[in-house]
Write a structure and sequence with these properties.
By secondary structure, the protein is of the alpha+beta class. It folds into three domains: about 80 residues, Uridine Diphospho-n-acetylenolpyruvylglucosamine Reductase, domain 2 (2-Layer Sandwich); about 150 residues, Uridine Diphospho-n-acetylenolpyruvylglucosamine Reductase, domain 3; about 110 residues, Uridine Diphospho-n-acetylenolpyruvylglucosamine Reductase, domain 1 (Alpha-Beta Complex), CATH 3.90.78. The protein has seven helices and 23 strands.
Length: about 350
């Protein structure tokens, strides 16, 4: 192990950034894939962030920032530095007549933060319950579920520009959120370390309960954040495997966005094709439905497979390698392309 100590003027920080060599990443990715990182560290405070930035300026070794590892697939060992962001902190920073503003550190567990909001009567995020990962990873792909996206409630974001070490503040608009996308995932990929986000919780919430069976689970209950959150947890547990038991990264593919013309043509051939009209005029359809129609649901190839309860979830049933999961994903992409002329896009980042 190497202890990297940040120099601050004529003094040194008391917090060491401990660097490990050839460290296993198996417990840091929700697929449970066995892969090693050439260098590895955990970042728990601002001093260690500064130490990481200084370390990076003095080396040309690539840097991989990880949160909960719930949106990544390792097909091979990582030949760089993997830094797990584990900073903590939740605080109310201000209130006005309409909203409460909650700032939360990037290393906080996302679901635990949502439950903290629910238990303290801060509404807005309840539909995003039980999504794995950390707060800092959430804005990268603009996480969403059951009719709500992070973009709907994010007020501001604080990030460190890796090349300069400067802290920059982003408004919701500057994050350029789109469906499972953001400024940080596309335009500025690998250029920032997200340090915190600020959520805007409405004091008069507009509950979103029309989506995918929520009303049925809520039947007979009061409509509030606590009950909606509990219903979402029930729904997700009924459909999705627990990564602690069966390795997975949740939804592996994005739902495709189709033009009206293409959707109409497919609808004539496949009358049950799902459709969700978008504000930009495109039609979102269900990747799970497409995969299911190709006969993949419940199929296995060795220790890699498609979950029997949800066609969108690829799973590691034992000791599957990242390469095996990747090959299965490619086979699914090809079959959907051949049958529907739609190219599926993977959600997780793939290290290959």
């Amino acid at each position: 192990m190497i202890a990297y100590q940040l120099k601050l003027g004529n003094t040194q920080s008391t917090e060491l950034m401990k660097i490990k060599k050839n460290h296993s990443l198996k417990k840091y990715n929700s697929f449970g894939i066995e892969a090693n990182s050439r260098y590895f560290c955990q970042i728990k405070n601002n001093e260690q962030i500064q130490a990481l930035l200084e370390w990076r300026q003095n080396t040309d070794i690539p840097l991989l920032l990880l949160g909960g590892g719930s949106n990544i697939l390792f097909k091979k060992d990582y030949q760089g530095m993997t830094a797990v962001i584990a900073t903590k902190g939740i605080e109310i920073i201000k209130e006005d007549e309409k909203y409460t503003y909650i700032k939360v550190a990037a290393g906080e567990n996302w679901h635990q933060f949502v439950r903290w909001c629910v238990e303290n009567n801060y509404a807005g995020l309840e539909n995003l319950s039980f999504i794995p990962g950390t707060v800092g990873a959430a804005p990268m792909q603009n996480i969403g579920a059951y009719g709500v996206e992070l973009a709907d409630h994010l007020y501001a974001l604080e990030a460190i520009e890796l090349c300069s070490g400067k802290v920059k503040n982003f408004t919701q608009q500057q994050c350029r959120f789109a469906y499972r996308d953001s400024f940080f995932k596309s335009i500025a990929f690998g250029q920032y370390l997200i340090q915190s986000i600020t959520i805007r919780s409405p004091k008069k919430p507009q509950w979103k309960i029309e989506y995918a069976g929520i009303k049925n689970v809520l039947k007979g209950q009061e409509i509030n954040a606590q009950n909606i959150s509990n219903s979402i947890i029930t729904l997700r547990q009924s459909k999705l495997p627990d990564p602690a038991i069966i390795g997975n990264a949740g939804s592996f593919f994005k739902n495709p966005l189709l033009s009206e013309k293409k959707w109409q043509a497919l609808k004539q051939q496949y009358p049950t094709l799902p459709s969700y009209p978008q504000p930009n005029g495109l039609i979102k359809t269900s990747a799970a439905w497409l995969i299911d129609q190709c006969g993949w649901k419940g199929k296995r190839k060795g220790n890699a497979g498609v979950y029997q309860k949800h066609a969108l979830v690829l799973v590691n049933y034992g000791n599957a390698t990242g390469k095996e999961i990747g090959e299965l994903a490619n086979d699914i992409i090809k079959s959907v392309q051949d049958k529907f002329a739609i190219e599926l896009e993977a959600e997780p980042r793939i290290i290959a």
